[in-house]
Design brief:
The protein has 14 helices and ten strands. By secondary structure, it is α/β, with parallel strands linked by helices. Residues 1-5 have low confidence and may be disordered.
Length: 290
């Protein structure tokens, strides 16, 4: 006799194991456990791993991605002058991003020497003097571009943009700007504002949620708890995605003892549609027409 098996679940105990693995790899386990308890808390700091909003539901306001980002910010692994003396820039360029990341964090300012093709240590005074001389030598503040990573903390990015604006420019392209410029322009043209208009409380009030082309279980797992809570409250969730992501099918919240320690999980999507590329727009138009 055949039977229908439930799809695998995402989250649960495996996510807890992954989180602890990242904390242990940082070589500063005790410090990073304390750090994680402060992530996205009123008296703590914003997670550098995602931009999902904060709420007051629980002590653990982070996901596996966030735990990795926080643990790596305060890792015990370091690279100093000896590392760069042994590796030319040409050699480093052949390594994967993964390999480069796990060598460790910088311990002092480094300056590229084109004659040797190596980064070489310099003093903080010389580093600041070089930056100042370069900035003062520009014809206009708008000739400089202040680039920062999306992994930088909100606090560091805030100070960075203050410095740039005091210098006299608004040139701040970052990864979010480049990723979302097109959607921001389209939103301004269609609804008059270039960012989302929903707030976290909308998930608690919604009768239906449509998820288009997102992979929250992979890219922003903290959203999964909001979707889980909505689904358990009777909200109907419809997902459109070419990729069948397990988290959007069944999700076990690490904050739920039952789902953490047993096979139990919450069904997230009541309908999971996988149209061909471009088919989601056809579906949206059909819904609007209907």
């Amino acid at each position: 006799m055949s039977h229908i098996e439930k799809p695998a679940k995402a989250g649960g105990f495996s996510s807890l194991q992954s989180t602890m693995k990242q904390v242990l790899r940082s070589q500063k386990t005790r410090q990073n456990i304390k750090n994680l308890l402060r992530v996205n808390q009123t008296d703590g700091f914003d997670c550098p791993g995602c931009a999902w909003g904060d709420n007051d539901h629980g002590t653990f306001q982070f996901c596996e991605n966030g735990a990795k980002a926080v643990a790596w910010e305060s890792t015990g692994k370091t690279v100093g002058a000896e590392f760069f003396a042994a590796h030319s820039v040409r050699q480093l360029a052949t390594q994967s991003d993964y390999w480069l990341e796990y060598q460790g964090r910088l311990t002092e300012p480094m300056r590229y020497n084109p004659a040797t093709d190596h980064y070489e240590p310099t003093s903080w005074d010389d580093a600041f003097a070089l930056i100042a001389d370069t900035l003062k030598g520009l014809n206009s503040p708008d000739e400089v571009e202040f680039y920062t990573s999306g992994r930088a903390s909100n606090e560091a990015s805030y100070l960075y943009q203050l410095f740039g604006r005091l210098f006299g420019t608004n040139n701040f392209p970052d990864c979010s700007n480049m990723c979302h410029e097109a959607s921001g322009v389209a939103l301004i043209q269609s609804v008059g504002i270039g960012k989302g208009t929903v707030v976290l409380d909308d998930f608690d009030q919604a009768d239906a949620v449509f998820v288009y082309g997102q992979n929250p279980g992979t890219n922003h797992p903290r959203m999964m708890n909001a979707l889980r809570q909505a689904a358990r409250g009777g909200c109907k969730i419809v997902s459109f995605n070419n990729l069948k992501e397990v988290a959007l099918e069944r999700f076990a919240s690490p904050q739920s003892p039952l789902e953490l320690l047993t096979p139990a999980a919450t069904t997230i999507s009541h309908q999971y549609l996988t149209p061909k590329l471009g088919g989601d727009m056809a579906a949206i138009r059909g819904m609007a027409k209907y």
